[in-house]
Design goal:
368 residues, mainly alpha, three-stranded antiparallel sheet, 66% helix, 3% strand, globular
């Protein structure tokens, strides 16, 4: 049962920041999809339903002492691999990728939940090895721990989510005591050796995304079309935006593709302008600050590393998604946390915040 004395450590400001972002998301999704569905708020209703389900899941998570997860990390890691394997056996293909399992009422995307599973299992792995990173080779077991699920996600193919795993791993390694110079050497070595190999295994559309990012004028009507239209939408919003719903021509006339998912920030910037974009970014900064603050006061290394993993995951996705919409990052298909339409993404992010709140609530041992 939930002990009411834990409420005094509950971070209501963190939860309120999440609520504010989700509320803004519902408004933007409504605006982005109303015209395409002739006024039918299908996407808004569905996203609101998933938020309700996700909030219930968050409440369940905060009622379980997070130290219990330490005992079952091996099972979570195994479940993670089984779900990712099921994608290849039972998955539904869409948009050139096989990432979803059709459950009838819900398309499950295991790669989303894999992020949280790897954060929890990696937190135990690193907590057990805390401070034991004197050698440059000491991080290799961590790379092996992450490489199998990351490789399975890359083969779906889902390059964007695979890159999120790298951000999570390096953020948690650094906070676990790995030397910065060793991590930097691995980054440089990976870029020098890995990029040519990666280029060979990328699919044609993935290569075109990178080529289009470097030289958008070479493929303005195909590979670079989304990003060009997104940049136009962001720029056309000006300081205060062009207004809600049909006032934004790029989104309402469907020049911006996937306006309620990958490119939701461009719709926001077009309709409520630079000011709206700044408000959203400040909400993200505040949310991330609260997560890091909880990491700083966590009662053990396991809890601290989980918070750092969640913060690394959120920051990377926010930077890549917003950078993608304004033309300074290549298109990767990463959702914008708590903003982009999608049940799996929203549920996973809410579970992550629930786990962080759980750690914050139990930062002190209860005295009887």
């Amino acid at each position: 049962m939930f002990d009411r004395r834990l409420v005094r450590n509950f971070d209501f400001l963190l939860l309120l920041s999440v609520f504010a972002i989700v509320l803004l998301s519902l408004l933007i999704i409504s605006s982005a999809t109303m015209d395409s569905l002739a006024g039918d708020p299908f996407f808004v209703k569905r996203q609101a339903t998933w938020f309700f389900v996700s909030f219930i899941a968050l409440l369940v998570v905060i009622n379980i002492d997070y130290t219990q997860f330490y005992r079952v990390t091996h099972y979570l890691y195994g479940l993670n691999l089984l779900l990712l394997l099921a994608v290849f056996l039972l998955g539904r293909e869409g948009g050139g990728a096989q990432r979803w399992i059709d459950l009838g009422f819900f398309n499950l995307q295991p790669s989303e939940f894999a992020k949280l599973f790897i954060i929890i299992s990696l937190a135990r792995h690193l907590a057990a090895r805390e401070g034991n990173f004197a050698s440059i080779f000491s991080v290799i077991p961590t790379f092996l721990h992450v490489s199998l699920p990351m490789g399975m996600i890359f083969l779906q193919p889902n390059l964007g989510t695979a890159l999120v795993f790298i951000a999570i791993m390096f953020g948690m390694l650094f906070m676990a005591g790995a030397k910065a110079k060793h991590l930097l050497l691995y980054v440089v070595g990976s870029l020098v050796v890995g990029l040519p190999l990666l280029w060979q295994v990328l699919r044609d559309y993935q290569r075109m995304r990178l080529i289009s990012f470097i030289s958008p004028e070479r493929d303005a009507l195909s590979g670079a079309f989304q990003q060009i239209q997104s940049v136009i939408a962001v720029g056309s919003g000006g300081v205060w935006g062009r207004g809600w719903f049909a006032e934004g021509t790029q989104s309402s006339l469907s020049f911006t593709l996937e306006p309620h998912t990958d490119f939701i920030f461009s719709v926001l910037a077009e309709q409520i302008g630079f000011a709206g974009g700044v408000v959203l970014i400040l909400l993200y900064v505040f949310l991330t600050f609260r997560v890091i603050r909880i990491a700083a006061v966590a009662k053990d290394t396991f809890g601290m590393l989980i918070c750092i993993g969640v913060a690394s995951m959120l920051l990377f996705q926010i930077l890549i998604n917003i950078g993608m919409t304004v033309g300074v990052m290549p298109v990767t298909g990463l959702p914008l946390p708590f903003m982009s339409y999608g049940g799996s993404s929203l549920l996973m992010n809410m579970l992550s915040i629930g786990l962080v709140l759980n750690i914050g609530m139990r930062r002190h041992r209860l005295m009887f």
